[in-house]
UniProtKB/TrEMBL annotation:
<keyword id="KW-0448">Lipopolysaccharide biosynthesis</keyword>
<keyword id="KW-0472">Membrane</keyword>
<feature type="domain" description="Glycosyltransferase 2-like">
    <location>
        <begin position="7"/>
        <end position="165"/>
    </location>
</feature>
<keyword id="KW-1133">Transmembrane helix</keyword>
<dbReference type="InterPro" id="IPR029044">
    <property type="entry name" value="Nucleotide-diphossugar_trans"/>
</dbReference>
<dbReference type="Pfam" id="PF00535">
    <property type="entry name" value="Glycos_transf_2"/>
</dbReference>
<keyword id="KW-0328">Glycosyltransferase</keyword>
<dbReference type="InterPro" id="IPR001173">
    <property type="entry name" value="Glyco_trans_2-like"/>
</dbReference>
<protein>
    <submittedName>
        <fullName>Glycosyltransferase family 2 protein</fullName>
    </submittedName>
</protein>
<keyword id="KW-0812">Transmembrane</keyword>
<dbReference type="InterPro" id="IPR050256">
    <property type="entry name" value="Glycosyltransferase_2"/>
</dbReference>
<keyword id="KW-0808">Transferase</keyword>
<keyword id="KW-1003">Cell membrane</keyword>
Length: 229
């Protein structure tokens, strides 16, 4: 069986303590899994040394690329940049916070050719109670509004065929980005495979997804997407 061509990107905001480790881990795994690959770091306006570390990694290997946002534009904007920059047939994205085991990309390989989207869902999610409660509520809201039936909408471990983005574009700059993806996938009758993945506690850096401003923006985007679908 021919190995696939894979683009893998990491959205990164203030991940100076994690970015080098996850990129080098991804490089090692992709050298085994892929025929050709590229790793893209999307530095979303970090105000620590994430950008400098990313540039140093890219200088050492032409298969590593960096996209810089001069200012922090939001999680959805970082994902959109990653999807746009990816050039190969299959696009993986994984958060750069070190909470996933990248070797579990092996689990995805038997399915990526047969499904438009292969998405992880977190087994025994290692986040605090408030984040878990928010996630459950978010899943319920999106099931009601958009008919989205995936277990873990915002799991940041996905593989999407690049051809999917010939069918539609994503517009959201904030946390609504994954819900928008699934809502549009449903409209276009795309096939989705869900795979359980391990999840680990963050040991370095600070989570920002549960900030009130992020949640408010997500709900604002939710209604805008509902209005325009």
């Amino acid at each position: 069986m021919t190995k696939p061509d894979i683009s893998l990107f990491f959205p990164a905001y203030n991940e100076e303590g994690n970015i080098e480790r996850v990129v080098l881990e991804a490089k090692s795994i992709l050298e085994e899994l892929a025929r050709n690959f590229e790793i893209i770091i999307v530095n979303d306006g970090s105000n620590d040394d994430t950008g400098k570390i990313a540039d140093a990694l890219a200088a050492q290997d032409p298969r590593i690329k960096v996209c810089h946002h001069p200012l922090n534009r939001g999680y959805g904007a970082a994902l959109k940049t990653g999807y746009t920059a990816a050039r190969l047939e299959y696009i993986f994205f994984v958060d750069s916070d070190g909470q996933f085991d990248l070797s579990e990309m092996h689990k995805f390989m038997p399915f990526i050719a047969d499904f438009d989207i292969v998405t992880g869902y977190r087994i025994r999610r290692q986040d605090n109670f408030v984040r878990i409660l928010n996630a459950r509520g978010w899943n319920i809201i999106n099931k009601i509004l958009f008919g989205i039936n995936v277990k873990d909408i915002n799991c940041a471990f996905k593989c999407i065929k690049r051809s999917v983005f010939d069918l539609f574009t994503l517009t959201t700059d904030g946390a609504m980005i994954n819900a928008e993806l699934y809502a549009k996938a449903r409209i276009h009758e795309l096939t989705i495979k869900e795979i359980g993945v391990s999840h680990y506690s963050r040991t370095i850096g600070t989570q920002t997804g549960a900030h009130l401003s992020v949640i408010i923006k997500a709900f604002r985007e939710l209604w805008l997407i509902k209005k325009h679908l």
